[in-house]
Design a protein that fits this description.
Helix content: 40-55%
Order of helices and strands: HEHEEE
Mean pLDDT: 61
Distance between the termini: 52 Å
Shape: rod-shaped
Oligomer: single chain
Radius of gyration: 22 Å
Number of strands: 4
Strand content: 15-25%
């Protein structure tokens, strides 16, 4: 095999690897975007939710700016309303979480990354 053939195969392999990695990053980013849209739709629905409807929600991650009015409304209806920091495997940086104990169950709303 000549040096040109080796260089061509090496270049083709690197190009294939770059395409595979690029595809993986796009799929990961698309999944995060879909998750964000699901959360925003849920947040929109929660704007009209009662305390009883919050019972099934264990954690909701949304951006702080979108939460200000909703958090005030939810805290008015909650029995206990306090905040703490959490970390998870998707985003290792700590996030502030608002924990609410409602008459129907528990709900926590995160003020962190979506």
């Amino acid at each position: 095999m000549t040096a040109q053939a080796i260089a061509a195969w090496t270049y083709a392999g690197m190009l294939a690897l770059a395409l595979i990695l690029g595809w993986a990053v796009v799929k990961w980013w698309d999944g995060r975007r879909d998750h964000t849209m699901r959360v925003l739709r849920m947040l929109h629905q929660l704007g009209h939710a009662t305390v009883d409807e919050l019972a099934g929600i264990t954690r909701l991650e949304v951006k702080p700016r979108a939460m200000q009015v909703l958090l005030a409304r939810l805290c008015d209806q909650a029995l206990v309303c306090r905040s703490f920091e959490v970390q998870d495997e998707l985003w290792p940086a700590p996030r502030r979480v608002l924990y609410m104990l409602t008459p129907a169950g528990e709900a926590a709303v995160s003020r962190g990354w979506v």
